[in-house]
Fold this sequence. Notes:
This protein is mainly β.
Amino acid sequence: EVQLVESGGGLVQAGGSLRLSCAASGFTFDDIAIGWFRQVPGKEREGVSCISTRDDTTYYEDSVKGRFTISSDNAKNTVYLQMNSLKPEDTAVYHCAADTSVWSSCPIVEYDGWGQGTQVTVSS
């Protein structure tokens, strides 16, 4: 069973930084696509970033390019999202998602693992 557990969210002032973590279990970590979506009530879910643990290919949504960095530690089955220069519009619940299929790639289109989410709030 695919399990994803996020941590690291919180309240931060605009311009500040947070580091999200996603601990994964239940599947082979070194040949998947794994990344982050964010959800704001009343808005569509948005893919933020993704990394392929097969070849380290990364994807970033345009609004976070240059501010967010995704990385993975295959030995710890964990993916991280370093978020710098945070803006109030980054406020959302951030969910970790994984595509463990043999066709997995970034950006993630279909996923078979979804975490419970961690709240990120950026105050102005």
